[in-house]
Design goal:
- By secondary structure, this protein is of the alpha+beta class.
- Among the domains are: about 170 residues, Nucleotidyltransferase, domain 5, CATH 3.30.420; about 60 residues, no CATH class.
- The chain contains 11 helices and 13 strands.
- Strands 1, 2, 3, 4, 5 and 6 form a 6-stranded mixed beta sheet that branches. The chain has a 5-stranded antiparallel beta sheet with strand order 7-10-11-12-13, with no helix packed on it. The chain has a two-stranded antiparallel ribbon with strand order 8-9.
- Strand 12 and strand 13 form a beta hairpin.
- Helix 1 packs across helix 3, helix 2 crosses helix 3 and helix 5 crosses helix 6.
- The longest helix has 17 residues.
- About 35% of the residues are buried.
Length: about 375
Amino acid sequence: MPWLEVSKMQMREEFVGLAVQEGQNLRQLCRRFEISPTTGYLWLKRHLEQSGLADRSHRPISSPGRSAATVEAQVVALRQAHPAWGARKLKHRLQAQGHAMPAVSTVHAILVRNRCIEPGAGTGQAPWQRFEHAAPNDLWQMDFKGHVGMYRGRCHPLTILDDHSRYALCLSACGDQRQETVQDRLVATFRRYGLPRRMTMDNGSPWGDSQAHYTAMDVWLMKQGIRVSHSRPYHPQTQGKDERFHRSLKAEVLQGPPFGGLEQAQSAFDHWRQIYNQQRPHEALAMQVPQQRYRTSSAEYLAQPPPPEYSHQDGVRKVQANGEISWQNRPYMVGKAFIGERIAVRQTLEPGHYDVFWRVQRIARINAINHSVISGKRLP
């Protein structure tokens, strides 16, 4: 799991970064990080006092009259540490570290003068703002970043991103794309950060189906009360934030020499995830870092979710071995992923039409007039 390989200091820095967010339940966070409340409050106290855990100082570390050469050296050094960062990111990161910085255009000129970028490159103007969900954990986006060649085998980077804050919840070096592998990483992520209200994935394996059928992964997620959705085929922009995260991952981590194996890949991923979440300013967040916008979910992962509960007005049916239910003496296919599950049939406002629910999610609509059924994935 991503956080099992990180250093103790990285874990502490992530803990206090989340602990200071407004509305955070500190005792719940301590349980998820597997530390005592006493230790958690101690780390938070030391962080607030800037006596050991703070990764930046909020006061200038040098005099306002220092030479322009010092500023230039700071810009060039940070650019060398992060070659994919432009003038805006460099300026805001150095300011966050306590340095008084010139305008973005001046930082850009420093980069050009030191041959860090080409003279015709952009000056880091604020980009177009895309839609985002209103609160953390409203929606998580999940995907694999293809595969990455290594000296020993292949690495399949699994990424999970919070839509509102762009917080990277999981960046895991997986050896395959099997359902069991994904569920293993998801359980660890849920136990650390809680549950999202909804998750969206593409239509590829192991979570998608090009025929719009529900999969075992869908059902496993819905058992936790998570609503699932899938991007439209051939429309990767549906998961635009995760796609953008993949481009940053490629530019800042995957462009170097091949990893020796999964352990080395995971070490590099852990290091960069900390930088991405806690240090790297994000233009779409008004140059905040994702950790400033994220807080953990209060919803807990349940290893054994309780059975679904339905209203006495619902028509409750059990899905048979062929994936069908019987309604008004006719069979209707709701999907083999639900075999053995109890579902609820509810009358809609349109006569002769019924919605089929499993737990909180609508999974089908029955048309009893022409005896057809539409998968919930195809419904608006």
